[in-house]
Specification:
Structural class: mainly alpha
Order of helices and strands: HHHHHH
Distance between the termini: 23 Å
Number of helices: 6
Shape: extended
Radius of gyration: 23 Å
Mean pLDDT: 83
Helix content: over 70%
Low-confidence stretches: none
Strand content: under 5%
Oligomer: single chain
Largest sheet: none
């Protein structure tokens, strides 16, 4: 059975089963990830790991192209990027929550450092540096350090709601096509 989805043929009478199946799968994943956020963080991390694998594959293709005509330093830099992409993908597959926590803490420290540097650079001038956006960034940086999985859970919630919306859309479209309303 062929499960290819083409947007041009979405209203094809023969494709309604595929739309219904896709809608049910997206609804199930969205509801499950929304109800169990720790599993959702793992699924989210595995999705990011797949993106890193794709980036590693692209980097590997570029490395093969560079090996023909570039200098050793460029080849070594491309090799390092390739190794970093694949290492990050493996770490995200094996230790999803730990890597998310480390990345969140690192990002929180970076945000706080960046805001402190901006404040120190601007403190000698007249007026206050801290506007609303700077305060929001400071609060987010502190939250990311105190509660490292906050950002991941927040993103999982948003992606789960999006999956539920698309699942309902595909399910309703498939049912409408089956009933002859399209």
């Amino acid at each position: 059975m062929n499960y290819n989805f083409f947007i041009q043929e979405i209203n094809n009478k023969k494709k309604y089963r595929n739309l219904i199946i896709l809608g049910v799968i997206l609804l199930a994943i969205g509801v499950y990830c929304l109800s169990k956020k720790t599993v959702g963080v793992s699924i989210f991390s595995w999705g990011i790991a797949i993106a890193f694998l794709y980036g590693g594959w692209i980097s590997l293709k570029q490395l093969n192209e560079l090996s023909r005509y570039e200098s050793k330093s460029e080849i070594n830099r491309a090799r390092a990027y390739t190794i970093m992409f694949f290492a990050m993908a493996i770490l995200l597959f094996v230790f999803p929550k730990t890597v998310n926590m480390i990345l969140s803490i690192g990002l929180g420290i970076y945000i706080l450092y960046q805001e402190a540097v901006k404040y120190l650079a601007m403190k000698n001038y007249f007026g206050s540096y801290f506007d609303t956006w700077a305060v929001i960034k400071l609060i987010m940086g502190v939250i990311m350090i105190i509660s490292p999985l906050f950002l991941s859970r927040f993103l999982v919630s948003i992606l789960s709601v999006i999956a539920i919306i698309f699942g309902m859309f595909f399910l309703m479209t498939g049912i409408n096509i089956r009933n002859g309303r399209y």
